[in-house]
Design a protein that fits this description.
Layout (H helix, E strand, L loop, with lengths): L2 H55 L1 H8 L8 H26 L6 H14 L3 H10 L5 H12 L11 H5 L7
Length: about 170
């Protein structure tokens, strides 16, 4: 065997080692992506379960959630409703982005949107909270959200007082 033959054999073995390393690395990256997706999904599910559990064990909060939010609300209740709606929106923003980035399955978003379609965002106060926060989103999200929640009624016709628009009465500002 000549030196050239030995060098050629060593180069072939080294090249095969590189190929095997790249394949192994690709498998590791794929597995890590699957683990990351599972962790995102778990954290989103846990966040939702925590809210459900808090609602079930806190009678005052359950009474608050069962109140007619389109009716007369005190200033304190309007603030509480607004903060709850903002929390819900921020959760939807987060889950929507995770779905778009293919980090979690669409079921996480569907579950949340189905709950909102029951009426949470159909009240005038909720609409004003949405109108205030939607400027933080891109047009694609805005159109998707309004189509999902309001359907053909995306241009809701309601009387907008200053309190409806801001969610707060003048005495609070």
């Amino acid at each position: 065997m000549t030196n050239d033959s030995i060098v050629l054999i060593v180069q072939i073995i080294a090249a095969m080692g590189v190929v095997v390393s790249v394949v192994y690395l690709a498998i590791q990256i794929h597995q890590q992506n699957q683990i990351t997706k599972a962790q995102f999904g778990h954290s989103l599910t846990q966040r939702q379960y925590d809210r459900y559990f808090a609602s079930s064990k806190d009678g005052e909060f359950s009474a608050f959630l069962s109140k007619d939010w389109s009716g007369d609300l005190s200033d304190e209740e309007r603030v509480r409703v607004s903060m709850f709606l903002i929390t819900t929106l921020v959760d939807i923003f987060d889950v929507y982005e995770k779905v778009q980035d293919n980090f979690v399955n669409n079921k996480h978003l569907e579950t949340r949107m189905n709950a909102l379609k029951l009426g949470t965002f159909k009240t005038p106060l909720a609409r004003t909270v949405w109108d205030f926060w939607k400027i933080t989103r891109d047009q694609e999200f805005i159109e998707w959200f309004e189509r999902e929640i309001y359907g053909e009624d995306s241009e809701l016709d309601y009387k907008r007082s200053e309190t409806d628009y801001t969610g707060f009465s003048k005495s609070i500002r």
